[in-house]
Amino acid sequence: MIDIVIPVLNNPQWLSMCLTAIRAHTKTTGYQIIIVDNGCGADTKRLIDLVAVKGMNAKVIHHDNTSFSSSCNLGIAAGTNPYVCLMNSDVIVMDNWDTYMLADMADPTCGLTGARTNAGAGWMGDPSSWG
Question: What is the DSSP letter of 30?
């Protein structure tokens, strides 16, 4: 139901935490991870290859790093699900992240929704994290 597009340029430790969190906290069945490798180094490529063969339902696109937006567009084009989540490789999702996103998208007047964060300002910030 959701294509999770993750453009990646190195930092395998963050990508590993990101993927672990997706696996642990995604409630929606039928999600697909689309990793766009933007010319990663050997350590990150090994992790990406491992993910692709470890049953995480991941598609991998190898891409010359022309721009972040071109990587996002390649990932979107490779998807097959009705909903798309563009996710940075250093994002750590929490329980029900996908449920909340899909609830927002169930409103026919909604075309786009954003994440809530404990490190953001304004309406995107999580007030419970404000000291």
Answer: T
pTM of the predicted structure, to 2 decimals: 0.85
The whole-angstrom separation of Cα 56 and Cα 76 is 18
Token pair of 127, please? 């007030």
Q: What are the pLDDT tens digits along the chain (131 aa)? A: 899 999 999 999 999 999 999 999 999 888 999 999 998 999 988 888 887 766 677 899 988 877 889 999 999 999 999 999 999 999 999 998 999 889 988 998 988 887 766 655 555 555 565 55
3 state DSSP class of 58: strand
**Residue 2: phi, psi to the nearest 5?**
-130, 135
Closest CA to 22 of 88, 110, 120, 112: 88
